[in-house]
């Protein structure tokens, strides 16, 4: 395996995340948010309700993996923020996606147009 193909431990862990967990990381790439704000963003994306029982265990798992940090805003509200490893996980997924869909020049042009 070449150096470029070597998957580090944290990167390998990040590549095993669910799509739901990746979506949480993408949301937090914009700015730190509290749980209900993350929930609203996910509901807008999915077009359906996201249960607390799905959201908070996933947030806790991402904290445990070191991909997000959790801090207390007040006694009832926690804020979540992307760590450097979390940001690297988002960028790894974006890069992998772009590398694999931009194989034809027309598709590459479509991607470039989105990014402009």
Would you kindly provide a written description of the structure presented here, covering whatever features stand out?
By secondary structure, the protein is α+β, with helices and mostly antiparallel strands. The chain has one domain: Arc Repressor Mutant, subunit A, CATH 1.10.10.10. Helix content is 62%, strand content 13%. It has six helices and three strands. It has helices spanning 9-14, 19-30, 35-46, 52-64, 84-101, 105-115, and strands spanning 33-34, 68-74, 77-82. It has a three-stranded antiparallel β-sheet with strand order 1-3-2. Strand 2 and strand 3 form a beta hairpin. Helix 2 (19-30) crosses helix 5 (84-101). The radius of gyration is 16 Å and the shape is globular. 13% of the residues are buried. Residues 1-6 have low confidence and may be disordered.
Secondary structure: elements and pairs:
Layout: H1 9-14, H2 19-30, E1 33-34, H3 35-46, H4 52-64, E2 68-74, E3 77-82, H5 84-101, H6 105-115
Pfam family, one: PadR
Keywords: DNA-binding
GO molecular function: DNA binding
Order of helices and strands: HHEHHEEHH
As for the CATH topology, it is Arc Repressor Mutant, subunit A
Helix/strand-derived category reads: alpha+beta
Radius of gyration: 16 Å
Largest sheet: 3 strands, antiparallel
Shape assignment: globular
* Strand tally: 3
Q: Report the CATH architecture.
A: Orthogonal Bundle
What is the percent of helical residues?
55-70%
Total number of distinct structural domains: 1
- Strand line-up of the largest beta sheet: 1-3-2
Compact summary:
This protein has 116 residues and is α+β, with helices and mostly antiparallel strands.
């Amino acid at each position: 395996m070449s150096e470029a193909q070597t998957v580090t431990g944290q990167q390998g862990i990040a590549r095993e995340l669910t799509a739901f967990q990746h979506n949480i990381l993408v949301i937090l790439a914009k700015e730190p948010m509290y749980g209900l704000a993350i929930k609203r963003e996910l509901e807008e994306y999915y077009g359906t309700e996201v249960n607390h029982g799905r959201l908070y265990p996933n947030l806790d798992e991402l904290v445990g993996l070191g991909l997000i940090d959790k801090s207390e805003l007040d006694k009832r509200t926690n804020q979540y923020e992307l760590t450097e490893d979390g940001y690297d996980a988002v960028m790894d997924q974006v890069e992998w996606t772009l590398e694999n869909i931009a194989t034809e020049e027309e598709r590459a042009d479509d991607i470039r147009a989105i990014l402009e």
